[in-house]
Amino acid sequence: MDLMTLVMLAVLAVLVFFMFRNGRKRKADQEKLQSTMVSGADVMTNFGLYGTIVSIDEEENKVALEIAPGTIVNIHRQTIARVVEPTEALVADEVDGVELNQDHATLLGEPEFGQRVDNDGDTEPKKGDA
Q1: How many angstroms separate the most distant Cα atoms in the chain?
Q2: Any idea what the CATH number is for the domain that residue 12 is in?
Q3: Domain residues for 53?
Q4: Which class for 77: exposed (0-12), middle (13-18), buried (19 or more C-beta within 10 A)?
Q5: Binning pLDDT at 50, 70 and 90, where does residue 104 land?
Q6: I want to staple 77 with a disulfide (CB 3.0 to 4.6 A). Which of 30, 61, 88, 120 is the partner?
Q7: What is the DSSP string of 9-61?
Q8: Whole-number Å distance between alpha carbons of 47 and 108
Q9: Average pLDDT estimate for 61-87
Q10: Has residue 28 been placed in a domain?
Q11: pTM of the predicted model, to two decimals?
Q12: 118: which DSSP letter?
């Protein structure tokens, strides 16, 4: 065998190795997702639909998903992309002693887009600024 054949076989072996590795990883991720899918869990589907699982039919691989109060759709179990983790919304006007600007959801004192900032960090308009 010449050197070129050995290099091609080595590249092929590496590609096959990564294919098997990627397949195992994808299977493990899918099993992890399936174990977290229970009734009452908030989920997102592959096509971007959010809802709450009402029931799971293991035999037919169907999930009853409530997408609005009283609206239940049946979808295939594998179309569920992920279980949505609940996040805490910022409700207070002040978080850790810092006021929030509710209109733009940015911290007060941060410059607006296009607002000039002096080197000392002062964002207040100066005399003569338009």
Answers
A1: 82
A2: 2.30.30.140
A3: 3-83
A4: middle
A5: very low
A6: 61
A7: HHHHHHHHHHHHHHHHHHHHHHHHHHHH--TT-EEEETTS-EEEEEEEETTTT
A8: 37
A9: 87
A10: yes
A11: 0.48
A12: -
